[in-house]
Amino acid sequence: MKKIICFFLSLSIIFAQQLQNPCEDNNYLELKDKNISEMSESEYEYFSLMTKNCQEFQIILLSDSLKQTKKITEMSSVHSSETMASNRTYLWLGIVFAGLMMWVMAGAMD
Fold first, then answer.
1. What is the C-alpha separation between 48 and 36, in angstroms, rounded?
2. Full-model pTM
């Protein structure tokens, strides 16, 4: 279950990045390679706006990733607690069964 959740979270993050990632805007990438002194005023304004958008996008993406990681960790710890309780139950049942078998075998040897 944990692997499925991780897969879908990764897929959604990749999909979200490709849809609206201002950091991968073609015009922005071209302007990044250009010297600021060579930019026109409108190019510089666009570059500044996209730089700000890119930084905000990365912060949001990081925040979402941290939230998802926290959820997965919480789900994992709950699952681990349930598994441990289940394992203790089976261990107890196994001990009781082994005791009964020894008692039956001891009675059969008499």
1. 10
2. 0.48
